[in-house]
Amino acid sequence: MHYTRRDAFKVGLFGSAALALPLQRAASAKSVLDDRMPSSKLPKPFTLPFRVPPVATPVSVHDGEDCYRITMKEAKAEILPGYQTTIWAYDGILPGPTIVVKQGQTTKVRFINKLPLKHPVLKYTPWTSVHLHGSASLPQFDGYASDITYPGEYKDYIYPNLQPARTLWYHDHGVHHTAENVSMGMIGQYHLHDDRELALPIPKGEFDVPLLISDCTFTKTGEFLFDTGGETGMYGDVILVNGTPWPAMKVKRRKYRFRVLNACVSRSYEYSLSTGDAFTVIGTDAGLMPYPQSVKKMRHIMAERYEIVIDFAKYKPGTRIVLQNTNPKNNINYPNIDKIMAFDVTDEPFDTSNNEIPASLYPDNPVMNLQPGQSVATRRLELVRKHGMWTINGHTWDDVVASNFTLVVGKPAKDTVEIWELVNKSGGWQHPLHIHLVDLKILDRNGKPPFAYEKGPKDVVYLGENEALRVIMRFDGCGKYMVHCHNLVHEDHDMMQQYEVVDATPGDDPLGWRSKSDSGEADDPL
Ligand code: C2O
Ligand code: CU
Ligand code: CU
């Protein structure tokens, strides 16, 4: 079964057609929120223990290739003490298992869709597409939104892992339902290591810690509550770190490296430590920065990854340090949204190796050495709301589907360098703009240099209110790739376009490697 434009209209009640019915939406949104679990019944911040997602185990390891089998399924999770919440998640856990790989080793991941035929509340059919965000995957393995896998089907994704070390993440990308699928729990991290990074004396092992930050809202019975605010965004009143509300983590008196991912559907953050002390950013979306950057405050929009080092050495045992959020404007605020998690300093003994931040990390990163003079073309992408629809240059993903996937924002030639101007003229919205395939460097933000913490390789940028960014990148790949807003509600309705990297021989078709029926899965060796 293939996804068609007719399907887009069929699912219109929860998709783009809903925008034509603002009154009905507003009415239903009100009744939905009436069922919200009162703030007084939510856990108090820092009362629940911090935990780290498990590392995935390969089902087989061949020469140069690790194979994994991950099932997308419904499960119950005790997120709020005493309540069982229905989640949809990779292997049934929120967040999904962390995949850890070394550069040069290919991974093949079989993602099996065992989700129910209908969403418990919203009633749509959960087709999925899995995107490994941060990977230069071939088009047919990139989680192209319209390359969908239905319940009862599976698809094998192949990841080359040839890029420099970085923090990636995998998440759902199914057309028109990414926001709901991701908010049900379909997120996980993926760590790529390389020799350069492993040789640095930066924190490793138990001191290299994933932080997947998400937000959600619960009904009075402890189920997830869905309110997209008239297709503008989903802003929860509970902050989860690795699936736990406002956890407290015991830390030793040394440096920790946190791989911080904003996995929220719509919420952006501004972090600081309650001590007022600085912390050090060592990595951005696409890996290590050339040089570490010390900051006291930083913004963090959806899908960005920042690797930050916090040094707890100088704090007395018993000290509590809170990671705070000063809530950038145009997010919806609730009590305790100004807190993320706490670090409780202990006097436990610790391993003193890899407890440094070298003065330079990856100065010869090719992306960070790109210069404007190398650019052969400049393109402009304007993110605008038009007739109630979210668009890029006035177009939606439905337009791409209607064009039989020929509509593109541009056709860069393979291996060339371009500058893209990303423009948000609105004062009321912020957009995380993500370009698939590439690692990019921010040249400037409103004509000024990027923030210190952005001086590293990126693949998604914080395009705040009335901001214009120039980014530079090399198109090292071939074929069609998406470019979209990573506020998943905007993405679903329908702020997503594609570009095509062209070469003498055409790139692979993103729809050219379809899912298979689950019934033969057991006989299909990995
Ligand atoms: Cu993380 Cu196209 O997405
Ligand atoms: Cu991506
Ligand atoms: Cu947006």
Structural write-up:
This protein has 526 residues and is mostly beta strands. It has six helices and 32 strands. The chain has helices at residues 5-10, 22-34, 178-183, 195-199, 397-402, 488-492; strands at 48-49, 60-62, 65-77, 85-90, 99-102, 106-113, 130-133, 153-159, 166-172, 187-193, 208-216, 238-241, 244-245, 247-251, 255-262, 269-273, 279-284, 287-295, 298-300, 305-311, 320-325, 339-345, 375-386, 389-392, 417-423, 431-435, 440-445, 460-463, 468-474, 479-485, 496-501, 516-517. The strands form six sheets. Strands 13-12-11-15-20-17-18 form a seven-stranded mixed beta sheet, with no helix packed on it. It has a six-stranded mixed beta sheet with strand order 1-14-22-21-16-19, with no helix packed on it. β2 (60-62) and β3 form a beta hairpin. It is globular. The two termini are 24 Å apart. It binds CU-O-CU linkage and copper (II) ion (2 copies). One copper (II) ion (CU) binds at residues 131, 133, 434, 436.
